[in-house]
Amino acid sequence: MTYKPPRRPQFFYTTAPLPCPYVSGRTERKVVTEITGPGAEGLHDRLSRAGFRRSHNIAYAPVCPACQACVPIRIPVARFRPDRTMRRVARANAGLEVFEMPARATAEQFHLFQRYQNARHGEGDMATMSFYDYRAMVEDTPIETGMLEFRDPEGVLVGACLTDRLGDGLSAVYSFYDPISERHSLGTYAVLWLIDRARALGLPHVYLGYWVAESRKMAYKARFRPAEILTGGAWRDLIDAPEPDEPQSGTDQTGLGVDPLLVAPMDTAPETFSAETAPLAAPR
């Protein structure tokens, strides 16, 4: 008889309440767990399909009191069709060369990261990150991670995207770009490039993190159609997504299924961990 050692339990913890960075006046709280050991890749895959995101060696998901505004969103690669604006963005950036680099921080990347933060998120915590903080963000990863570098014809770095490889897709962890080139919509182009790359690799999804309809900085993710959102333990098609400055009376602005017109059933997320029911230890 072969002895099988007991599986190490996966511990989940809740964070202390903090002000929400996306919706003014609300409180943010997360459930977090460590991704480590020989099973890190499989655990990260399952957690990603359950709506978690990765930062360093930690996976997290929102469990905010009285709020469900952060909605996991992904793009089904086979069904995606760019709209006219996205096709124009792709043409405008056709001269860029994209390099798939290992997850190694460079001074060149960090200088671009600083310019982006100061221009777009000057009051946020990330604007004060040192090079060592940035290096930890890029290099502290227990899974297969890479950095996309977008360079212009002169070889100048104009954009970058930290990307995780999943069993069923690519996950955009964090992207940044030269604020001077904002009119070229490099953030949109990075997502379009990831969709094309996932298609070439035979991967069905591109994970974009959380869609927040009430936050202009996060609402753009719903422009990539079709899109799927995770609600009630299942990935469902996102049918309608009003702009954050155009709320529709009587509908659920969070996209979590109160309005039956907002979502249509897709497939149930396999091996889903429910943030509401996962066993949580005492907060720390």
Strand and helix map with partners:
Elements: E1 13-14, E2 18-19, E3 27-28, E4 30-34, H1 40-49, E5 53-55, E6 58-62, E7 71-76, H2 84-92, E8 97-102, H3 107-120, H4 131-139, E9 145-151, E10 157-166, E11 169-177, H5 186-201, E12 205-211, H6 216-219, E13 228-231, E14 234-238, E15 263-268
Parallel strand pairs: 11-12
Antiparallel strand pairs: 1-4, 2-3, 4-6, 5-6, 7-12, 7-13, 8-9, 9-10, 10-11, 13-14, 14-15
Fold and architecture overview:
The chain is 22% helix and 28% strand. The protein has 6 helices and 15 strands. The protein has helices at residues 40-49, 84-92, 107-120, 131-139, 186-201, 216-219; strands at 13-14, 18-19, 27-28, 30-34, 53-55, 58-62, 71-76, 97-102, 145-151, 157-166, 169-177, 205-211, 228-231, 234-238, 263-268. Helix 5 (186-201) links the parallel strand 11 and strand 12. It is globular.
Q: Tally of extended strands?
A: 15
Can you give the mean pLDDT? 85
Shape: globular
Give the percentage of residues in beta strands.
25-35%
Point out poorly predicted stretches.
Answer: 242-284
Note the gap between the termini: 41 Å
CATH homologous superfamily assignment: Gcn5-related N-acetyltransferase (GNAT)
**What spatial order of strands do you see in the largest sheet?**
8-9-10-11-12-7-13-14-15
Total count of helical runs of at least 4 residues: 6
